[in-house]
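Thread: Newbie trying to understand structure tokens

Hi all, I'm a second-year student working on a class project, and my supervisor (Dr. K.) asked me to get a predicted structure for one chain before our next meeting. I've only ever worked with sequences, so writing a 3D structure as a token string is new to me. If someone could post the tokens and maybe explain what I'm looking at, I'd be very grateful. Here's the chain:
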Amino acid sequence: MKKLYVDQIKDRDEVEGVFLLRNLTLAVAKNGKPYLVLKIIDRTGEIEGRVWDNADLLAKSFAKDDFIFLRGRASLYMEKMQVVVKEMRRQDETTVDLADFLPVSQFGRGDLESRLRLKISKISASHFRALMESFLERPGFLDDYCTAPAAKSMHHAYLAGLLEHSLAVADLAETICQQYGDMHCDLLIVGALLHDVGKIRELQYRRSFEYTDVGKLLGHIILGVQMVDEQLAEIDAFPESDAVHLKHLLLSHHGQYEFGSPKRPKTVEAVILSYADDLDSKINGIRTHLSKEKHSSSAWTGYHRLYDQYFYKGEQDEARIEPEIEVSAPPMSKPKTAVSRGAQPLGATLADRLKTAKIGLPVVSSSGDKSDEN
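---
Reply by user tm_fold:
Sure, no problem. This is what the structure looks like when written as tokens:
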């Protein structure tokens, strides 16, 4: 049966299909009869469901993040689409494609994996290439690396986002090496591919994007260094100096202590990685913001709290553009995550930032949300 997506459901449609149960709440109607309020989702959006019969029993039979098959009828109530559910049952997760229920990278897994293997094959130093190959041979690693998001919500927050982001950072790092020369390019490329590898353990992403307990307690930077240490133990005679510098790249890639970085960048390669990570994260975050408002008639996006500004989308109907758009902005106050990289304004010029790019000095950065969100 062809998959029915949330964005395809219209008023009075007969609905029959598999969805992800994001939440369920037992409520009581005015007549005292219990009923269930469901939030059901797939990759295209979410819709509310109502169950009027056997609500008490069903509330005990289902839980958040269950895959469910349901049958019902769509109706428009107070200008909001909902489904009156007539039947629902738990669906075996082995029969569903996770990409139908969670956002996914625009690049296919096969393409991303091919790019990863090609990148590894071009690493000149045999010990660095052996390290990356040992990661790929690790049971379950490649599947996790090709599936995990790069964050819960800030940037590349979709399936395969981690690998897409890591490859983009590696490409940027490679370009910078070609521009300036006299860099330890193999070290930098491996650092780029592994800088966020700890997110495989920090995040859970099989049914929804949430932090694991170990992710909340340790964070992806520490977890990533642990994973690198585990694999280094499998490589014979890996140079100690290269091992130390590689781990420094992971420990310092957030740039500043207040952004959750255990160390600040103290080598040229570490500075490059921090900037490349920051740049790709920001571009993806801004593009995501732009895409969410692509159907708006305004030439400007809505206000983005994290970046503390609006973004220009392109030429639209000029009559619809508000002449003084900044007037409607919320008060200029920092978000609650002001200590995070993502909470920093974009106003600093490149020249301003390069002034701080000396080895051992603070690195201005702003690509994620705290140490466990970038």
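A couple of things are worth pointing out once you decode it. The radius of gyration is 24 Å. The domain at 6-98 is CATH 2.40.50.140 (OB fold (Dihydrolipoamide Acetyltransferase, E2P)). Feel free to ask follow-ups in this thread.
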